[in-house]
Amino acid sequence: MIGGRQPIYCAPSCSVGNLAHELIHALGLYHEQNRYDRDKYVAINWSSIIPSKKGNFRVKRGNTLNQPYDYESIMHYGMSYFSINGRPMIVPKNKPKTIGQRSHLSRMDIVKLKDLYCC
């Protein structure tokens, strides 16, 4: 979103949902589990995360666009993505139906992008 060229991760095994996730990064959105207020919504089990992937779970002070936490966001990791032992790394404090899907933009993903780009 800022300053020129933006590389997009796209491996041969990359699904349409993963590609959409990467494109939305390029548009300016972070992972949902990186929000400064995430600890109200999820617990992170650091011991279950592959060590080289722990940076993907650190809190960032980005702009939430004044929108609620979105478990259904395409930008949210699933409970066991990057698990070193198969156990959940992200445990919701509420019991949402979906967490970390890669099939579609959530309603809030669309709201955030529209807010970000004033459309």
From TrEMBL:
Domain of life: Eukaryota
A Pfam family assignment: Astacin
Cofactors (names): Zn(2+)
Residue intervals of the Peptidase M12A domain: 1-119
Family annotation (InterPro entries): MetalloPept_cat_dom_sf, Peptidase_M12A
PANTHER family assigned: DISCOIDIN, CUB, EGF, LAMININ , AND ZINC METALLOPROTEASE DOMAIN CONTAINING, METALLOENDOPEPTIDASE
Record protein name field: Metalloendopeptidase
Organism name: Ilyodon furcidens
Keywords: Hydrolase, Metal-binding, Metalloprotease, Protease, Zinc
Cofactor note text: Binds 1 zinc ion per subunit.
EC number annotated for this UniProt entry: 3.4.24.-
Active site per UniProt: E22
Record-listed Zn(2+) binding positions: H21, H25, H31
